[in-house]
Amino acid sequence: MNNYQYINAWVDDGIARIELNRPNVLNALSRSMIAEIIDSLTHFDTSDDVKVIVLSGAGRSFAAGADIKEMAEDDPISLEKLNQFADWDRISNIKKPILAAVQGFALGGGFELVLSADIVFAADQTKFGFPEVNLGVMPSAGGTVKLSKTIGYRKALEWLWTGERMGAAEACELGLINKVTPPELLMEEILTFAGKLKEQPPLSLRLVKDTVNKALDLSVYEAMQYERKNFYLLFASEDQKEGMSAFMEKRLPNYTGK
Ligand code: DAK
């Protein structure tokens, strides 16, 4: 796609790929790299050629966190003026499915990026963790929130206080990732999963993601009201007519995303 400096971004048959590409620093997330990730995500989210987005990292690691050299001299005022969270917040507004294929290290901001994805597969030697505490800081792009909501108060504090790294198997048991694969099968398996999603009606995927996100925030009653509205909305789609006609006509559906 565009000429990015710190990522590779391209589309292959309906599947958009974003590959972090600073392998000599284990894909440490510089501000420019985050800006490129967000720019490509936003572009793919509104592109009719794209059904699913897959994030991955070049080299031996997914991402070893924010670029420590870049942030070492920051102070509260410089951080306030940089307003980097405006970029990070945009990730949570992406409507299409985001899949992540993770290997090596996913630490700090790299782990937060993983936790921003909807589906995560990891190679079996992958290490996840929040080492911020070892640098005298703490996670800031949703790490404490997403970890505690997923694995609970005590488990979250254990990982956040010690900064220790968890293996892929444990991350999977804790519900932080979906699947552990041998490293050589990681990309094949995530692309197979992306291929399956690609065939599903895009509006259903979109509104399911939207509704599940709301369910994590709202009361059960409010979330169920919200679910209902999105269910009604899908009856305005051509894909609803197509899906139900195909069932009754005993043929495969041909979804168009309309
Ligand atoms: N930043 C900069 N360079 C890094 C890096 C990082 N996070 N991680 C690794 N590198 C560089 C190393 O300096 C080394 O570079 P050279 O010395 O060769 O020039 C190269 O990558 C290879 O790393 P190692 O030689 O250290 O490789 P090892 O296999 O021995 O060790 C490691 C791998 C991942 C265990 C180790 O590199 C490591 O501990 N890395 C640092 C992990 C870490 O503490 N990450 C940062 C956490 S803080 C924010 C949003 C998010 C964040 C902050 C703000 N806003 C929106 C405001 C997030 C903060 C964090 O992520």
Question: Could you describe the 3D structure shown?
Answer:
This protein is an alpha/beta fold and 258 residues long. It folds into two domains: 7-198, 2-enoyl-CoA Hydratase, Chain A, domain 1; 202-248, Lyase 2-enoyl-coa Hydratase, Chain  A, domain 2 (Orthogonal Bundle), CATH 1.10.12. It is 46% helix and 16% strand. Strands 1-2-3-4-6-9 form a six-stranded mixed beta sheet, with helices on both faces. Strands 5-7-8 form a three-stranded mixed beta sheet. Strand 2, helix 1 and strand 3 (52-57) form a beta-alpha-beta unit. Helix 1 (31-45) runs parallel beside helix 4 (85-91) and helix 10 (202-215) runs antiparallel to helix 11 (220-234). The two termini are 25 Å apart. Residues 25-26, 28, 64-69, 79, 84-85, 88, 105, 107-109, 131-132, 135, 140-141 line the site of 4-(N,N-dimethylamino)cinnamoyl-COA.
List keywords for this structure.
258 residues; alpha/beta; 2-enoyl-CoA Hydratase, Chain A, domain 1; Lyase 2-enoyl-coa Hydratase, Chain  A, domain 2; 2 domains; 6-stranded mixed β-sheet; 3-stranded mixed β-sheet; 12 helices; binds 4-(N,N-dimethylamino)cinnamoyl-COA
